[in-house]
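Marked as duplicate of an earlier ticket. Keeping the data here for the record.
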Amino acid sequence: MIEQQLVNGLMLGSIYVLVAVAFTLTIGVLNFLNFSIPGIFMIGGMFTWAALGAGVPWIPAIALVLLAGAAASLVVERFTYRWMRASDHFVPLVSSMAFLILMENLVLNGWGSDLQRVAVPFPNVSVHVAGLIVSLPQLLGLAVTVALVCVLGVLLRRTRVGRGLRTIAESPDTAIMLGVDIFKVVPVVFVISGLFTAFGGILFALNYQQVQPFMGEEVALKGISAMIVGGMGSIWGAVAGGLLIGIAEVASIQLVGADFVDIVVYGLLLLILMVRPTGLFGAAALGKGKL
């Protein structure tokens, strides 16, 4: 049923949206592709499993996992962008990749490589709407994702911190001359991206009820693809790209089978970029600072 696959695709796409927005922030503001994001996504999922398995109530567990994601992202900021920003542009990128490998191997050595089953703290309540089955936890996740993106848009457009971030995106040197303290403002980018990414890992763990140390890699590829297809530097482009990928993935499983998912999804994305190289919202996102 096409309508049901559309609903399922939107639910999956909301996870890709969170990761795509995290990538968009670091690219749009700092021109920095943060390869540690898959590791932070994995932390979101694995720490959710560990906290719930230890008997922590689900609301405090989610709060603790979000704090862990933000803290991990701040560590990456301190030892990649801040420490190495004067180096060649590829040095922070390689450093962030080293953090990804470090995170994965720490979790691998601590909890093993087995697929872990997440003990969901609430029943998988579903409702039937016009013949469609809608999972309430997934629907709540999608609603929270859209709300978070809206709040982020307001933050970037209407607050002093947001103006500082957009100034840094245009030119860090100009931002310094205008009195923007980049070493206070830039960490905000990493905290927000860490929170978005960790929340994506939480949603994945709660909705699909399974986690493992390398769970972030495939999701990150979809997140980067969503960012590029939506238009580099466009927050709402990342939203559109993430939802499109989610729908395409679920529809391809239904139509041609799971073995052909990546062929269909990435083939479609390649076709979109051949027709519109700047992405769906590329015209509004040309240049840095157009968040």
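See parent ticket for discussion. The mean pLDDT is 86.
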